[in-house]
Amino acid sequence: MNIRNIAIIAHVDHGKTTLVDQLIKKSGTLEAHEELAERAMDSNALERERGITILAKNTAIHYKDYKINIMDTPGHADFGGEVERIMHMVDGVLLVVDAYEGTMPQTRFVLKKALAAHVKPIVVINKVDRPVVRIQEVMDEVLELFMELGADDNQLDFPTVFVSALNGTSSLDPDISTQVPNMDCLFDMIINEIPAPAVDVEGGLQLQPALLDYNDYVGRIGIGRIQRGSIKVNENVVCLRADGSKTQFRVQKLFSYLGMHRFEVEEANAGDIVAVAGLADIGVGETICEPSCEEALPLLHVDEPTIQMI
Ligand code: GDP
């Protein structure tokens, strides 16, 4: 399975939710979902039992023989460290911009973090079906914003796609009459323009949780991209802790994403983003390894929170 990992950035109401729904509908995800639902237990019921809400949600889409993991990004600057860690797992971002409203200040912060992480951007000009649009001006605004936020040459060379997430249409041409009733040009752009994850399929497991989730049954769940090798349920692994110690544990559950759902899987391979349960106090930035091959990944640098409450 080929994998692409991307994050999605949008100002509130510019259509992030509608776009992700439409991408699920217009890809092969629902068919793949049904197939999987027969085999695996949908973990939604379990999810509802959770005590706390995760700050960023995963979605995955199947298109041709690709799996595209899509990480949501929080809109607020208070989640600085969160955004940096998300950017650590992905190789590209979709910046969704309303064809009338244009760029908004709220997206600056997250976009700046994405550009600093040198991930490849794709600009999605959404709502081209609106009666009044300012497509050319909005494109100019986006370019200006990228320059202002310090985009590198490769990022400034970003591809743009024009869509109506509401109608499920898209085109590479800003001329609205060229819209076609599918999302293929966006899917193809993702698989062609966003690099494959730079990971090592051979070799012993290395997985660094970049986000945490929690549920009452298994405690903390580490969400991260598999950097090297593969991970299997029931396998004994070692966690190299942030304080330099190590803890052995058994992989109790492994979750992967498809559409808006999270499913238990038996095994996952380098490049994929998975959630691992089994070590109740696992921390962000620690490294899960195969016992025969203990090598810690560098700890993740994160911004201090910008708001603190006492
Ligand atoms: P989010 O806050 O970014 O997740 O935005 P939503 O996906 O919830 O969309 C916000 C509003 O914009 C909703 O009322 C959508 O129906 C509408 N919307 C989203 N995409 C389009 C589009 O392509 N065309 C039009 N006309 N409206 C859209």
3D architecture notes:
The strands form three sheets. Strands 8, 9, 10, 12, 13, 14, 15, 17 and 18 form a nine-stranded antiparallel β-sheet that branches. Strands 2-3-1-4-5-6-7 form a seven-stranded mixed β-sheet, with helices on both faces. It has a two-stranded antiparallel sheet with strand order 11-16. The protein is 24% helix and 31% strand. It is α+β, with helices and mostly antiparallel strands. Helix 4 crosses helix 5. The chain has helices spanning 16-26, 29-39, 44-48, 80-89, 108-116, 135-148, 153-156, 184-193; strands at 2-10, 58-63, 66-72, 92-98, 120-126, 160-164, 169-171, 206-207, 211-215, 219-228, 230-232, 236-240, 246-250, 253-258, 261-264, 267-269, 273-277, 287-289. Residues 10, 12-18, 126-127, 129-130, 164-166 line the site of guanosine-5'-diphosphate.
List the helices and strands and how they pair.
Layout: E1 2-10, H1 16-26, H2 29-39, H3 44-48, E2 58-63, E3 66-72, H4 80-89, E4 92-98, H5 108-116, E5 120-126, H6 135-148, H7 153-156, E6 160-164, E7 169-171, H8 184-193, E8 206-207, E9 211-215, E10 219-228, E11 230-232, E12 236-240, E13 246-250, E14 253-258, E15 261-264, E16 267-269, E17 273-277, E18 287-289
Parallel strand pairs: 1-3, 1-4, 4-5, 5-6
Antiparallel strand pairs: 2-3, 6-7, 8-10, 8-18, 9-10, 10-17, 11-16, 12-13, 12-18, 14-15, 14-17
Helix pairs in contact: 4-5
